[in-house]
């Protein structure tokens, strides 16, 4: 493991050098909170503890994505494929786990089809992560196996100390970067390594009060099989009645991948475009068919399916939990639906 150090002034200078080669996406402090945005000046970059309100998902799986254009007459088809080079800085371990989930979902491992719109962006992206020293109130990353310190999924990973950062290279691209800009870095000492271990142990202890066996929860859902044989309908009804169908949990979640396709034509129907947009399985019309039949008409069934998806189906299909423990869904939920509390109740059913 290559472990280096860089002071915080040098870190900004290093990012400025990197920004000349690729678009830099990083956390920025706004009046409403910290969000991921494209950086114009590295002085805007926020190194504050805590997860940004938004996730990097929007830059790889866009909320609105033009897939291709069509023109009548001499039929023409123009596919729109984005190949920007990007660097994501400040990605927390839970979002690194979410990227791993999305990589699997949009790859040929999932249904034999590789999503070129996602992968042309993803392959041109470098990931600079940052470990969490103090989990937020809603964080569940330790329970989900994604944090608070990352084990994989990054090109470079930072751990903030008092006056400088430890930097770990996690890929050949990361090693090449620190070699190219070696003037910014110094070799870490044995004391630096020890301090990192102490910080990781301390961060994990912060989760000591959050105990739930998510594997047992998955097994209980599997036993139930959506039939209500193990988990009674009143349990889901109580949760569903608090849901306002706003879709906020889906839109803010870094692993939600539901989308719809719409075709738009100009007034003369001579040309048009096909667009992919984010959708929510919590919406009443999500599963509606052209015939009018709607297997998702019942709100209770929709909220129930969401938890089955996050805690069971995702493991069956991707081999990964659909929840990475970022806590964003609870932040935006007007019904105060807490996935940790739901999981705890399922565990003892």
Note down, in words, how this protein is organized.
The protein is of the alpha+beta class and 349 residues long. The chain has 2 domains: 3-205, no CATH class; 214-347, no CATH class. 35% of the residues lie in helices and 20% in strands. It has helices at residues 8-19, 57-60, 93-105, 116-122, 141-144, 172-180, 190-205, 214-224, 233-240, 248-252, 299-318, 328-332, 339-347, and strands at 3-7, 23-30, 33-38, 64-71, 76-79, 86-91, 125-130, 156-160, 164-169, 186-187, 259-265, 271-278. The strands form 2 sheets. It has an 8-stranded mixed beta sheet with strand order 3-2-6-7-8-9-1-10, with helices on both faces. A 4-stranded antiparallel beta sheet has the order 5-4-12-11, with no helix packed on it. Helix 8 crosses helix 13 and helix 9 crosses helix 11 (299-318). The relative contact order is 0.15. The mean pLDDT is 89.
Q: How would you concisely characterize the structure shown here?
A:
The protein has 349 residues and is α+β, with helices and mostly antiparallel strands. The protein has 2 domains: 3-205, no CATH class; 214-347, no CATH class.
Features:
eight-stranded mixed β-sheet; 13 helices; 12 strands; four-stranded antiparallel β-sheet; 349 residues; alpha+beta
